[in-house]
Amino acid sequence: MARRLVRQGEPPWVFNRSAGAVAELATLGALAAPSLSALGERCDLILTVLPDGPDVEAVVTGPGGLLASARPGTLFVECSTIDPGVTERVCAAVQAAGCRMIDAAIGGRPPQAEQGRLVFMVGAHPEDLERARPMLQQLGSDIVHCGGPGMGITMKVVNNLMSQSIQLMDLEGLALGVKAGLDPRVMLKVLTSTAADNAPLRTRIPDNVLTGRYAPGFAARLAHKDQGLAHALAARLGVPLFALGQARHLYSVALAQGLGEGPSEVLGQVIERLAGVNLRFKDEA
After folding, report:
1. DSSP annotation of 240
2. Looking at residue 285, what is its pLDDT?
3. Residues 196, 210, 268, CA angle at the centre, nearest 5°?
């Protein structure tokens, strides 16, 4: 996303806990902030993307965090996939400090970010969204106003529980077909032409699982974390999530097998071991 902004002619100030990432962006033209507080002092619109709720609270509201140095009226655009309750708590603290915040959860992967084709699921007051819209339009092709503060991240939690549950069903079906003697290419041709069609069957599964070449992507440990967010939200609201429960158990197995840093599609390796099959195109076996 930062590279995209640089290419659009609006190099952002950047800060990250990993200095290497900042140095890489600086070589492309981004402006390296020496600290969180320095970034807070320089910017009137601050976009945060962090792994989990405690990270967001530490970076935004913690000692030496962004809020301590941000000027009144600063707009925070919080894009992390975290518990909606944490989002609401951080938003309240931001507003109490005289600043504004929207949650703008991200749909898409690195290629979409590079091309400015992300989907933003936004929870915001309308006037705050309009203020952030020019920047979001440089990064995304779709900006969906899901409701008031907290509704953007809530939508992302629902989106992720569905996409990850669907991916598990895809892998189980492919494993069954392969073990019964079907060719994966034949299966994909049929499945993507019927009511069984879905995004993982067209992209992540053929590109990663069926080739055996797992490109870096959304980490399995983060997928497991997101599933926990859905379960926590469902527990608060009293909604059963039977399919997600199975997916999360299998992601727990993937993490136990040391696959947590691989892309979420490494669930295919777990299914292969359990089913005793090789999920590969014949020319990739």
Report:
1. -
2. 58
3. 80
Q: Are strands 75-78 and 31-32 parallel, antiparallel or unpaired?
A: unpaired
- CATH 3.40.50.40 is held by the domain 2-148: no
Q: What is the CATH number of domain 154-284?
A: 1.10.1040.10
Residue in this structure with the two tokens 């699921």, named with its chain if needed: 121
Tokens encoding 170? 């895809």
Long-range CB contacts (within 8 A, 24+) of 193-200: 198/166, 198/170, 199/163, 199/166, 200/163, 200/166, 200/167, 200/170, 200/265
Task: Report the run of H or E that residue 50 belongs to, with start and end.
Answer: none
pLDDT digits (tens, 9 = 90+) for 76-98: 999 999 999 999 999 999 999 99
> What is the pLDDT, as a whole number, of residue 217?
85
pTM: 0.92
Burial of 166 (0-12, 13-18, 19+ CB in 10 A): middle
Q: Which residues are catalytic?
A: 156
CA-CA distance, 83 to 54, in Å (whole number)? Answer: 10
Which sequence spans correspond to the domains of the chain? 2-148, 154-284
**Residues of the chain below pLDDT 50:** none
CB 264 within 8 A of CB 167: yes
